[in-house]
Amino acid sequence: MQQLAEMGSEQTKKTLVNHGAREPFYGVKVGDLKKLVKPVKKDQELALSLYESGVSDAMYLAGLTVDPKTITREQLQSWVRGAYWYLLSEYTVASMAAESPYARELAMEWIRSPEEMIAACGWSTYANYLSITPDEQLGIDEIRSLLHEVRDRIHEEQNRVRYTMNGFLISAAAYVKELHEEAIAIAEAVGKVHVNVGNTACKVPLATAYISKMAGMGKIGMKRKTCIC
């Protein structure tokens, strides 16, 4: 924690506040956090305690270092409840959950949550799960049903839920060959998704354009080795 405090800066804090971070946190750049991954990975209990600290920088570092194969369902439930802004919910917890043995069941549970950050985490977890799981291990009918939900409800959902539903749509088109064409049709029907990104330069990717770009690079159906980053 002392190292993290020394690595933080006021300028980075100001930037992260614009994105939704709040105290306590030190303002450490993600690239600098990654420099601490190797030593922290040697101590699983240390990694877990970093998340429990409630300090955003430490929580993000924990997500880069905890072993997703040994983390428990109860710990993931605790993590999602503590993920108070999107960097933690949509990236730290979602990527960790996606590589855990509880990926699909927790994604489906969280998607149904009335709490914005938890629901957003659910959609992001499932999107990440699609990116690393062989198609033959996926429930195609369930994914298709979720795609239909995206088509019918995305524009009426809570702010960050809209963002992650859009990400799920892109992920289904990019990583699940059987659903590629259907996902493209839904992306065309959905069109532009509007998300309030606050005082930041962030943009919501247009699903049709993003999918087309991946297709042009020959990446449709190519799975990732990991979604933790």
Automatic annotation (TrEMBL):
Classification via Pfam families: DNA_alkylation
Native source organism of the sequence: Paenibacillus taihuensis
Protein name as it appears in the record: 3-methyladenine DNA glycosylase AlkD
InterPro entries: ARM-type_fold (IPR016024), DNA_alkylation (IPR014825)
Top-level taxon in the UniProt lineage: Bacteria
